[in-house]
Specification:
The chain folds into 3 domains: 3-75, Winged helix-like DNA-binding domain superfamily/Winged helix DNA-binding domain (Arc Repressor Mutant, subunit A), CATH 1.10.10; 93-168 and 273-297, 3-Layer(aba) Sandwich (D-Maltodextrin-Binding Protein, domain 2); 170-272, Periplasmic binding protein-like II (D-Maltodextrin-Binding Protein, domain 2), CATH 3.40.190. The strands form 3 sheets. Strands 3, 4, 5, 6, 9, 10 and 11 form a 7-stranded mixed sheet that branches. It has a two-stranded antiparallel sheet with strand order 1-2. A two-stranded parallel ribbon has the order 7-8. Strand 1 (55-58) and strand 2 form a beta hairpin. It is built from 13 helices and 11 strands. The longest helix is centred in the N-terminal third of the chain and has 28 residues, at 66-93. It is α/β, with parallel strands linked by helices. The termini are far apart.
Length: 304
C-alpha cells in the first residue's frame, strides 16, 4: 500500500474535515472527542506523505491550502459514500432494498413533496427515504459533495453542473387582511404592493432576494415593518393588520384560510416558481434514488 493511502483512513478524513470546518484544531478535537495532539499528529502524517502542507493559519483561523481543498472535497465524498453504503446495508438487514437521502427547501416541504414521497413509498415499501429541510445553497452544496442523493429546490438557485429534472410549480400571492385597501383586487402587480407596509419572510432566503431585486428594478427599496422566519407566522401577523406578505399560495393556503385572510395572485411573470430535483448525475444514483427522481419528475408542471 502506498505510504499516503495508509494515512487516509476514515477517522483521519473526519478529523481533517472537522479542522477545516471549525478552523481550529482544539475545537475539532473537542468535536471528535480527542486531544488536540492526536488531531495534529494525524494531519501532520498526511502532510508528510503528500509532501505538501494541507493547512495554513489565515485571518479567520486555520484554512486549507490548495492541496487541502482537494483533500477536503474528496474526504467529504468518501465519507458520504461510506455513510450511504452503511445506510443501505442497514436497510437490507431490516428488509429494505435501498435508502435515499433527500434535502428540500422550506417551500417544497410545505407543499406537495411529502405527499409525493409518501405515494412513492406506498409503491416501494422496501425503500427507506430520509427527508431534511435545508436552505437552497446548502442543498446544492450537499448534492455536489455527495452527502445527499437528491435535492428539491426552486430553479432560481445556482445548480450548474448538476443533473436537474423539472418538478412542480407554485404561484406567489399577496396575503392580506380582509380590510386591507388591496384586498378586493382580483390580481396585483408587485409594484402596487410597494407603498404598503410589508412583512418579510425568511430574510436572506431565495424569495427575499427575489423581491429585493425586483423592487430595485422598479427603483424602490423594500423596508419591511416586521421580518419573521415562517409562513404561518407571516399569516398571523397579517391577520393582526400589521402588513401584507408575499407568499407561495400552495404552502400558505391552510394558514391563510384559517386566519380569514385574503390571497390575491401576483400578476408578474416571475410569480410562478418552478422547482427542480437535482442530483450529481445519473451514474452516481442508486436504483432507489433514480426511481424516486423519476417519480418526482412525473409531477412536472403540476400547478393546482
Amino acid at each position: 500500500m502506498a505510504p499516503m493511502l495508509r494515512h487516509l483512513d476514515p477517522v483521519t478524513l473526519r478529523l481533517f474535515i472537522a479542522t477545516c470546518e471549525e478552523r481550529n484544531i482544539a475545537r475539532a478535537a473537542a468535536r471528535e472527542s480527542l486531544v488536540p495532539s492526536a488531531v495534529s499528529k494525524r494531519i501532520a502524517a498526511v502532510e508528510a506523505a503528500v509532501g505538501s502542507p494541507l493547512l495554513v493559519r489565515g485571518r479567520r483561523g486555520i484554512e486549507p491550502t490548495a492541496a487541502g481543498e482537494v483533500l477536503l472535497r474528496q474526504a467529504r465524498e468518501v465519507l458520504s459514500a461510506l455513510e450511504r453504503t452503511q445506510a443501505e446495508l442497514t436497510g437490507f438487514a431490516a428488509g429494505a432494498r435501498g435508502s435515499v437521502r433527500v434535502l428540500a427547501s422550506v417551500s417544497a416541504l410545505a407543499e406537495e413533496l411529502p405527499d409525493d414521497i409518501a405515494a412513492f413509498l406506498a409503491r416501494h415499501e422496501k425503500v427507506s427515504v430520509t427527508l431534511d429541510e435545508r436552505v437552497s445553497s446548502e442543498i446544492v452544496r450537499s448534492v455536489r459533495e455527495g452527502s445527499a442523493d437528491l435535492g428539491v429546490l426552486w430553479d432560481a438557485s445556482e445548480t450548474s453542473g448538476l443533473l436537474a429534472v423539472p418538478y412542480r410549480r407554485d404561484r406567489l400571492c399577496v396575503v392580506l387582511h380582509p380590510a386591507h385597501p388591496l384586498a378586493r383586487r382580483k390580481r396585483l402587480r408587485f409594484e402596487q404592493t410597494l407603498p404598503h407596509p410589508a412583512i418579510g419572510v425568511a430574510p436572506g432566503g431565495m424569495m427575499d432576494l427575489l423581491l429585493r431585486r425586483e423592487a430595485a428594478r422598479l427603483g424602490a427599496t423594500l423596508a419591511y415593518r416586521i421580518q419573521i422566519a415562517s409562513f404561518d407566522s407571516a399569516c398571523r401577523i397579517a391577520a393582526a393588520g400589521l402588513g401584507l406578505a408575499i407568499l407561495p399560495r400552495e404552502a400558505t393556503a391552510p394558514f391563510a384560510q384559517a386566519a380569514g385572510l385574503v390571497m390575491v395572485p401576483l400578476a408578474d411573470p416571475w410569480a410562478v416558481r418552478r422547482f427542480v430535483v437535482v442530483a450529481r448525475g445519473e451514474a452516481t444514483l442508486s436504483a432507489s434514488a433514480r426511481q424516486l427522481m423519476e417519480h418526482l419528475g412525473r409531477q412536472a408542471g403540476t400547478l393546482p
